[in-house]
Amino acid sequence: MALLKDGLAAADPYMDVSGAEAPDFSGAVIISLPQWHKHKAALSGRADPLGIVLASDEKPALIKDDLEHFSVIVLQFPTFRDGRAYSHARLLRDRYGYTGELRATGEILLEQLHYMQRVGFNSFSIDSPNAVRDWEIAGADLSVWYQPASDQRATATLLRHKTVQD
Questions:
Q1: What angle (nearest 5°) sits at the alpha carbon of residue 74, between those of residues 70 and 76?
Q2: Which residues of 123-143 are buried (b: 16+ CB within 10 A; e: fewer)?
Q3: Which residues, 6+ apart, have CB-to-CB distance to 3 below 8 Å?
Q4: Which of the 8 DSSP states describes residue 40?
Q5: Backbone phi and psi for residue 13, each to the nearest 5 degrees, phi listed first
Q6: For residue 138, what is the enclosing H or E element?
Q7: Is residue 164 scored above 80 in pLDDT?
């Protein structure tokens, strides 16, 4: 898997221990929601970076009061047809004010990268031999957007009105 962050190839500093039965929580780790609930007291005060992975059926409201503890939140796409993580990303950014790394993982299609970015994802764990090239291809597909989103790009309506006023 390749990691893209803000459109660039990046090394992943985190060890994913979310599936481990007896995880080692030392260093930069990504944990599961059940692990967070079970070990919250011990994990809250640690100095190392902490991430959490949410399955598509785990709502962000379950961690909304704990967001300051997470430097990365990983949202899973178990299949490209499951769009719940889009809504979860938008909630995390717009309603709950999460400003850290928001990572998409799972079954991600090239055609979805820009839409994921629009709702707030800024990193992607994708299966690609050349993830940066794929990101550039996806970025060239669309230049005008109709709906407002978390990325604050001007919509077609705003651009049209600006052109008329100029």
A1: 155
A2: bbbbeeeebeebbeebeeeee
A3: 9, 10, 11, 12, 103, 123, 124, 125, 131
A4: H
A5: -80, -5
A6: helix 131-141
A7: no
Q: pTM to 2 decimals?
A: 0.83
Average pLDDT of span 69-86: 94
Nearest CA to 145 out of 156, 137, 161 is that of 156
What CA–CA distances, in Å, run from 113 to 121, 123, 134?
Answer: 9, 10, 9
Identify the bridge partners of residue 145 per DSSP, sorted by sequence position.
Answer: 155
Do you know the residue count of the chain?
166
Q: Which long-range contacts (CB under 8 A, 24 or more apart) does 31-35 make?
A: 33/58, 33/62, 33/63
Nearest Cα residue to 66 out of 43, 82, 87: 43
Residue predicted with more confidence, 27 or 128 = 27
Would strands 123-126 and 2-5 be described as parallel, antiparallel, or unpaired?
A: antiparallel
